[in-house]
């Protein structure tokens, strides 16, 4: 076994390389344990119970083909949502509970569905090939909204998933952060597991 003197450059380099990762793991573990041990919320629900009421916009394999916020020639000056590349005809579902406020063709979004979520945010699902909900309909996590496609301004089949603070274009927020707050992670790897 090798022992290091107290102040060697190699020891310092190893500590700088290993310590942040180890500390991050300890903090993540501590945070998850604290969440599990936390008492019920003010409405009597356990913090992890909220994640049961939220889900991914599709159960199919996908890859993020265009991330949120990329600068470009969009009217807002940046990509206002995240694009999930999926096969045409992939079932698209609501990520949580709310009311459908739009279910029709909508300009560059093609066939689109917008839901006013119970938390007041607006979630838009664009470029669908077929819509299976109607305005005014109440939806919950996993309610089928339609099927993916390439309608509107699209170069191939994908789901454009966008979250807004109001119905106005340009009031977008990061959809990955929004879902993460509800316990759902959209990964940017090649496919989610």
Strand and helix map with partners:
Blueprint: H1 9-37, E1 63-66, E2 82-85, E3 91-93, E4 98-105, E5 111-117, E6 122-131, E7 138-139, E8 144-148, E9 158-164, E10 172-173, H2 175-181
Antiparallel strand pairs: 1-2, 2-9, 3-8, 4-5, 4-7, 5-6, 6-8, 6-9, 9-10
Task: Characterise this structure.
This protein has 2 helices and 10 strands; from the N terminus they run αββββββββββα. Strands 1, 2, 3, 4, 5, 6, 7, 8, 9 and 10 form a 10-stranded antiparallel β-sheet that branches. It is globular, with a radius of gyration of 21 Å. It starts with 8 loop residues before the first helix and ends in a 12-residue tail after the last helix.
Q: What is the number of beta strands?
A: 10
Q: Beta fraction of the residues?
A: 25-35%
Figure out the total of helices: 2
What CATH first level of one domain would be assigned?
Mainly Beta
Q: What is the 3D form?
A: globular
The percentage helix is: 10-25%
CATH superfamily of one domain: Glucose Permease (Domain IIA)
CATH fold descriptor of one domain: Glucose Permease (Domain IIA)
């Amino acid at each position: 076994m090798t022992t290091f003197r107290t102040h060697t450059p190699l020891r310092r380099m190893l500590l700088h390389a290993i310590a942040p990762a180890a500390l991050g793991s300890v903090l993540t573990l501590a945070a998850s344990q604290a969440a599990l041990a936390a008492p019920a919320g003010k409405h009597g629900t356990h913090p992890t119970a909220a994640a049961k009421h939220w889900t991914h916009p599709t159960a199919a394999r996908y890859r993020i083909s265009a991330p949120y916020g990329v600068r470009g020639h969009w009217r807002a000056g940046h990509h206002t949502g995240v694009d999930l590349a999926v096969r045409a005809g992939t079932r698209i579902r609501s990520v949580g509970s709310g009311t459908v406020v739009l279910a029709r063709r909508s300009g560059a979004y093609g066939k689109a569905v917008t839901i006013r979520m119970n938390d007041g945010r607006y979630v838009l699902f664009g470029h669908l090939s077929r819509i299976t909900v109607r305005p005014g309909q109440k939806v919950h996590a996993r309610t089928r909204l339609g099927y993916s496609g390439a309608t509107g301004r699209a170069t191939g089949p994908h789901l454009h998933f966008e979250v807004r603070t109001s119905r106005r274009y340009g009031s977008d927020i990061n959809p990955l952060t929004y879902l993460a707050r509800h316990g759902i992670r959209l990964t940017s790897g090649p496919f989610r597991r």
